[in-house]
Write a structure and sequence with these properties.
Helix content: 55-70%
Shape: globular
Number of strands: 0
Radius of gyration: 14 Å
Largest sheet: none
Oligomer: single chain
Distance between the termini: 37 Å
Amino acid sequence: MSENTTFTWMPEDVKALISEWAQEDIQNILEGKSKRNAVAYDKMTQRLHDQGILCSKTQLIGKLKYLKKQFTDGKKKNRSGGGRDDILKVCPHWDQLVPILDHGK
């Protein structure tokens, strides 16, 4: 897929992306050095392609960065005493991202 092709992430695509991101083999790669992150991103992109989700690696990385930002915003909202509804407004995938990004904290 061309890097310049527009790809719209549908809700089910995001769910599949988060599911792949949470896989133990992907997490093990990502816990290592950042040079190996490309391997994880390639694997995730291929697995999504196998599911019919035709995003590029660049688009996948962009979506991961966006999800991380939403998670960070959710943590800020949580620390400032925001309720669950407030957290879900800024981070709709909060429950799925906590196990991936909070690292047991």
